[in-house]
Every structure is written in structure tokens, then in C-alpha cells.
Amino acid sequence: MAENTALETIEVHPITFPPDVLARISPELSLQRHLSLGIRPCLRRYEEFRDITIENNTLSRYVEKDSVDAKNNILGSNILKSGKTVVITSITGGIIEENSASIKDLDDFGEDELYEVTKEEDEIANYASIYPVVEVERGRVGACTDEEMTISQKLYDSVLHSRILPKKALKVKAGVRSVNEDGTFSVLYPDELENDALNETNLKMKRKWSYVLYAKIIVLSRTGPVFDLCWNSLMYALQNVKLPKAFIDERASDLRMTIRTRGRSATIRETYEILCDQTKSLPLMISSQNIAFAANYGVIELDPESQLQNPDNAQEEVDIDMDKSQCILIADLDTEAEEISIHSTISVIASSAGRYKQLTLVGAGAKITPEMIKRSLLLSKVRANDLSARVKK
Amino acid sequence: MNVQDRRRLLGPAAAKPMAFSNAIIDEQQKKPVNMPSKDSENGDELSLHTGFIENCNGSALVEARNLRHQTSLITAVYGPRSIRGSFTSQGTISIQLKNGLLEKYNTNELKEVSGFLMGIFNSVVNLSRYPKSGIDIFVYLTYDKNLQSEAPAGESQSKKTFSEISYLIPHCITSITLALADAGIEIVDMAGAGEANGTVVSFIKNGEEIVGVWKDEGNNEDLLESVDDCKEQYRRYRDLMISCLLEQKSLDTSSS
């Protein structure tokens, strides 16, 4: 200042911005200012979640009770709206033939490693997962983004390790379609027959099939991290999946033929179409006690320097201890400001009964204390309780 | 399923998509279920919303339902945003049609339609106001159900001589126009269109100017009659669009 006065007096005016401009220029500062008032930029309290609205099964082929939409191949769906973000999940299916080797190469994603890991207790091999494709719409065309790939993989792994989908539930109980004397078709299903003797003779098939489930998850209007929204939407959608009954033709039920190639004879088993029933379906038997819901948290240090002065005691110069920083826990991160300034995150998947399926801690900034982990686990349970109650409505 | 794509989890390659048996649906099930009560063929029930997607400049949701179809479209407009490369005196428009959840239409069909839509909106949007910028429009066909499939087979065969996609085009145009208005992008006039007999005619300026004609195979003889039908529908859609935008505006002003 001394040199300046020698030359010329420069007046320095403090610049003030309206809140919405400041939020664009310096999201961190804007966030800190809000937090010092006890609220967040989205006007929620620290530990307040966004409310969700859901709509189940409105897109699936079984939407109407007495008829099916023949051209629709969606088996279960969910639309989840949380704040401004809309997540649309639809589940479709496929059928894969199981052969003896297939258990090992059925799931090609790291299944070998998985086998190494779980050789002793082969528990996880009894469970299957769903193949999710996540699309976060952001006005670009081309290859999928890192975020989409990461969320898809995380969803796949989490469904598998949450043990929600037992492989048993995906087994196809194939029926046989036979032609009656008058030329009409009729289909016999093993689970519909009461007569055991008939069951034995008619439906002894060597071949086994299982369903494969795919999920397409479209995220519109992304405003913050979306993994937990995708997960919750997937959970709702999985709970209302109906699997169509499948059948094969009678004459193909056990077909083999022997062929000779280069002097050697080999048995070829004909591959044939397995068809799904238009109308009949069974609900997917998921292990409902393992249904869990996701929630995310962030930990941020309150910056004492950017605190707003309380106008009541502004005169008496409250002595804020500049060295002591205070960390707070923020639930359900949303908005750009929170996403870019909060680096320490906790992500929990928990069921309403208090079964914890997943806990991810990322400590990159503010320190995550054991109390915060405890608090977030507790909040997750409450949140899961709330979310699971929505299904029954 | 594309097995080459290793960035997405597409599942085991050996799995086949579910094939449903050819409808052996009982005759009594074919009776129309939950049909709209309107008896006229063009009695569309339309529901319009704008501005519900946060991370784009303008958006619109159009839901339509009549005797034949039930459709829901989401349109998002991104832009005007700067484009890379050399200076252009006019803005450029790109329109992407996306198959949402039901993989009903093939890519070529959708490309053809988006080409047609681009032709319309190149003349509707005041592009000289947006030099060196691009306007990207995405249309998601969230839901599309053909209600007529429940009608007796013989009848629907004769009626479905033209592609079903022509039915969608007027709604695409409605939703893009609304989304452009929501984004505050300058347009010459509210564009709209109507569909009759597989012919789609798009109008501006109270039906005085035609900005696009789409013709599928179908009845070719009474083209002029179709144009009149389309014009009538265009007027209805345009009035609905305007009242929707005015309502939105009054909502915005009352809330702020």
C-alpha cells in the first residue's frame, strides 16, 4: 500500500455477487456459505434425503392383469424420480442353454478369479446377477462414458454379492408343446401337472436352460451422483419381474443323431428353439430378505474463514478458532456444487432389517471418523426402511 | 447382441433373447381392453409438458393416445453450444432419434425420420442468429404401444400397409417445437404436423406454408384430402402447444 500511495490512490472496492452468480463462479465458497447457515444449496438439511416417487411395472408386458402386450418384451420396469433426476429401468430376458461346462464359463466377467477366491466356500456360485447397461443422458453421442461403465460394473458386482438372485430362481422349468389329434397345440408344464407318473414320462429332459436377465437403465436429467438411484430403481424393478413360462416342441424334447466325420462318429444334439409362452408367467423368486437399498454420504470440513457472520453478534467479534475445523456428514449428495467440492464419500447398501450389503469409503479430503461411519450406517437402515415400504403401495 | 462391445455388460454370448410363441391368444382376449372412449379416428388425447430435464437447455414430454397407438416421447435440446473448427455463419442442427426402452424400430428407419425432421427444423429455426454454434436435439421414444394389434388379424393386415413410424412423426415435431421454445431458441413459427393415411405434412404459419412432406406407401389417390386432414390436426396440435407454453409461462412468473 505504501508504494501505491506514492503513485496514485487506488480504491479497492469489494466485489459482491448475487448468490446465483457466486454459485456459478465459486461453487465451493457458495457451498461453505450455505453450510454455515445449517442448510445446503438445495435447501435440504445436512442429513436430509430427497424424496422419491416411483412407478412400478408400467412399461412391462404384464401391465394389464387380464391381457399381455404381445410385442413388448419387458419383464419388469421401474421409473424412479428423485429430485429432478429421472431413472427409467427396464428388465428384459434371454435364455441360455446350460451344459456341463457352462457353469464355469457362463459368466465371463472375472468368473475365473471368482472361482479362485471362493474355492473353499462356493457360496457365491449359487447366485447370479443381472447385466445392466446404464445410459446417462447428457446430450452427447458416441461411446459410453467412464461413469456409465463404472456404474454398470458396480451394479453387476453388487447384485451378485448381495445374493439377491439365486441361480435356482432362474432355472427354466420347460414345458413341452404337443400337437393334439385335432391339430391344436397344447403345452404341458411340469409344475402344472399333479399326476406324478405323467410328469415322469412326459417331461424327462436332459437339457437344462436358465434365464438371463438384462437391465437397461436410462438416467435423464443427471444433477449429481447417480449410482444409488440406479441401484434403488433396479431393486424396485427386480421385485416385479415376471418370467414367462417356456416350452419346447415334443418331437424335439430328446433328439440326438449320430453323424460321422472323418471316420469318427460323434453325437450331435440338435439345438432348437425354446419358446416363451405369450400369456403364462411366474414371478421371479428373488431372495427378498436380501433386497437392500443404497444411500450415499459425503464428509466435508467446514471452512471457518468462509463462515457467514451471524448479524446478531457481529459487533462483539466472535473469536472463531481458525485452526479447529469441524467435519460434517451430508446425506444424499446432489447438485454440482456438492459433487465437486465433497471428495470424501461413504456409500452404503443396506436392507431395512439391518443387513448391510456394501460399504464403500473414499477418504480424499475431509477425515471420515468412526462416528460418521456409524451414523451413516444408522441412517442407511432408516432410509432402507422408508424405501422398502414404498413397494407395498 | 454385440459381443464385440467390451465396454458394456451385455451378458453371455450364448444367450438368446426371449422368443415368444406366435400369438395363440384366445379369441375372447382379443376384444379391445381399456380403449379410449373417443370414437373418431383422430381423437388423440395429448398431454404436453416442458422443462423437466435439468441438465439440458430445453425439454418436452409428449404423451399421445388414440385408438391406434399409445406413445410417449421425451425431447431434450442441448444448445446453442459452440462447435469446434472453422467459423460457420449459421448454426447447425442435429437430431437424434433414440429407441428408448422398446427396441421397436430399426436404426435405418430412425435415421430416415431424423433426416426428415432435420429438414423441417433447418427451415423453422432461425439459424442465422446462431453463428458458430450447434443445436443438438435428442428424441427418446420412451414408450410406444400399438393398440391395434389387438384387433382381428385380417383387418389389421390390410390397414397396416404403411409403416407405423409415420404415426410418430407429428408427435416428434410437436415435442421438438416445444423443447426449442423451452430452450429459448428463436424459431420462425411453431411447427406442427398431422398424419393421414401414412402421409405426414408439416406446416407453419397457420397452414399457409408446408415445411415437410413424408409419404409412406398407402393410399396415394387422395393426397389433397390428406393434406387437409393434416392441416386440421396441425391446427389442433398448435393450439395445444401454445396453451401449454402459456400455462408454463404463467406458472414460472407466479413462482418467481
Automatic annotation (TrEMBL), chain A:
Claim: Acyltransferase is one of the keywords in the record: no
Top-level lineage group: Eukaryota
Predominant location category: cytoplasm
Pfam families assigned: RNase_PH
Keywords, in A-Z order: Cytoplasm, Exosome, Nucleus, RNA-binding, rRNA processing
Example GO biological process: exonucleolytic trimming to generate mature 3'-end of 5.8S rRNA from tricistronic rRNA transcript (SSU-rRNA, 5.8S rRNA, LSU-rRNA)
Classification via SUPFAM superfamilies: Ribosomal protein S5 domain 2-like
Compartments in which it is found: Cytoplasm; Nucleus, Nucleolus
Cellular component GO terms, alphabetical: cytoplasmic exosome (RNase complex); nuclear exosome (RNase complex); nucleolus
MF terms (GO), sorted A to Z: mRNA 3'-UTR AU-rich region binding
Record PANTHER family: EXOSOME COMPLEX COMPONENT RRP43 (PTHR11097:SF9), EXOSOME COMPLEX EXONUCLEASE RIBOSOMAL RNA PROCESSING PROTEIN (PTHR11097)
Entry's family note: Belongs to the RNase PH family.
Protein's recorded name: Ribosomal RNA-processing protein 43
Lineage of producing organism: Eukaryota, Fungi, Dikarya, Ascomycota, Saccharomycotina
Gene name tied to this protein: YCR035C
From TrEMBL, chain B:
Organism: Saccharomyces kudriavzevii (strain ATCC MYA-4449 / AS 2.2408 / CBS 8840 / NBRC 1802 / NCYC 2889)
Protein name: MTR3-like protein
Alphabetical UniProt keywords: Cytoplasm, Exosome, Nucleus, RNA-binding, rRNA processing
Principal subcellular localization: cytoplasm
Pfam families: RNase_PH (PF01138)
GO molecular function, one term: RNA binding
Subcellular location(s) per record: Cytoplasm; Nucleus, Nucleolus
Entry's family note: Belongs to the RNase PH family.
GO biological process, one term: U4 snRNA 3'-end processing
GO CC, alphabetical: cytoplasmic exosome (RNase complex); nuclear exosome (RNase complex); nucleolus
Domain of life: Eukaryota
